[in-house]
Amino acid sequence: MNKNERMRGYAYLAAAMALVGSTVVASKIIGAGLPPFTATALRFAIALPCFALLMALTGARIPRLGRRDWLLLVAQAVAGSVGYTTLLIAGLQRTSAVDGGVILGTLPLAAAAIAVLALGERPGKAALAAIGVAAFGVWLMSSQTAAAGGAASLAGNALILGAVVCEGLFILLNKRLHVPVAPLALSTIMAGFGLAFSALACIAEAPWTLPLPATAVAAVGYYALVPTVGGFLLWYAGAARVRGSDAALFTALAPVSAVILAAGLLGEPLAGAQLAGMACVIGAVAMLGWAGRERAKAP
Length: 299
Description:
Blueprint: H1 3-31, H2 36-58, H3 67-92, H4 97-104, H5 107-119, H6 125-175, H7 183-201, H8 214-239, H9 244-249, H10 253-265, H11 272-297
Helix pairs in contact: 1-3, 1-4, 1-8, 1-10, 2-3, 2-7, 2-8, 3-6, 3-7, 4-6, 4-10, 4-11, 5-6, 6-11
């Protein structure tokens, strides 16, 4: 791969992570006008036809899967599609988008911690140090949030951390599939299951009786089309041009994007503890990424 292609890959990955960060601001706007399950169902109702069209245009197919793999995909959808989105929206109804962005950045560390706890993987020293640094960063930020915003903000942070854990479980469950599923097919399946489960759950919210604020609906449309579909295309276009260990480093850009957008678009203030927490999280992700890069270089 020549240098120009590699640089183009880096640009795609950076753009993809910037879009991931923007989901925090979008979720904050959505949560101000729509309940979580209704918003999640609407998101997947918009995204699913787009993924189905991409599959038709590219000739992608869903592989033949056994019962166990289908059950794992259902569990992935419950955790990663419905659990992540609804918990993120519910959390941002209670806390700031800045805090949400910092916590979102712990995803690579959460996935590594879940692999250690659930699969019994033996972490290296760098992974343990990175998890510890990220945990300290979240604690530092949350202690400031609790003092300033009280129990509601602390509960919101806990819900967002729950969303991160759900996404970490999604990553873990994907590794347990017997038959690998290509990214586009997996995204289509997740959107389909996500729509089905969130549509059932949103009945309790009686969406037919709710007003549909234009701002919240527009934010859902943005979430579905730009970070969900557009982010997918950008990430995999970038990942195809660089090493996996290099791609992992770009996940550190998501919390940066979220915090900058929260401050710039929503006018949220940035406290010193929040900046320090973000620095810890970004540093921890970089530590984890560099450790993976060194392992990839090892003979």
